[in-house]
């Protein structure tokens, strides 16, 4: 008997590069309806698949909503939406995906009132089980 958890793959593509787009990040994490993406491109296509590569949700050509260092991807049924955000206390504990695919948990956020500087903390955990 296995103790395997159900996992989803979140893939973020920049669709306007090269012939078929460029992969920005591909993260594997427990199912969630909210994922913060760091350093999102101005337009992104997001695909969520289960462990068996079955489609779960998708968002195509999601446009930047404002100039921020983070964007919140929301899963609403089989649809992904995008909102560029300055994280608040309500976002603490949300998974955060970095370009390249590493997934952590947002643990802290601060930004200057003029939004010209910010500091954030994320926790990363890995297990081979």
Proportion of residues in helical segments:
under 10%
Mean pLDDT: 95
The unreliable regions are none
Extended strand count: 10
Taken together, the total number of domains comes to: 1
Report the biggest beta sheet as strand number plus sense, adding barrel if it closes.
6 strands, mixed
Strand content: over 45%
Question: Structural class of the secondary structure composition?
Answer: mainly beta
Number of helices: 0
Cross-sheet strand order for the largest sheet = 7-6-3-8-9-10
Oligomer description: single chain
Distance between the termini: 13 Å
Shape: globular
Helix and strand run: EEEEEEEEEE
Give me the Rg, rounded: 15 Å
Describe this structure in words.
This protein is mostly beta strands and 129 residues long. The chain has one domain. The chain has no helices and 10 strands. It has strands at 8-14, 22-29, 34-38, 43-50, 55-63, 70-76, 79-85, 95-97, 103-111, 118-123. The protein has a 6-stranded mixed beta sheet with strand order 7-6-3-8-9-10, with no helix packed on it. Strands 2-1-4-5 form a 4-stranded antiparallel beta sheet, with no helix packed on it. The chain is globular. The two termini are 13 Å apart. The mean pLDDT is 95.
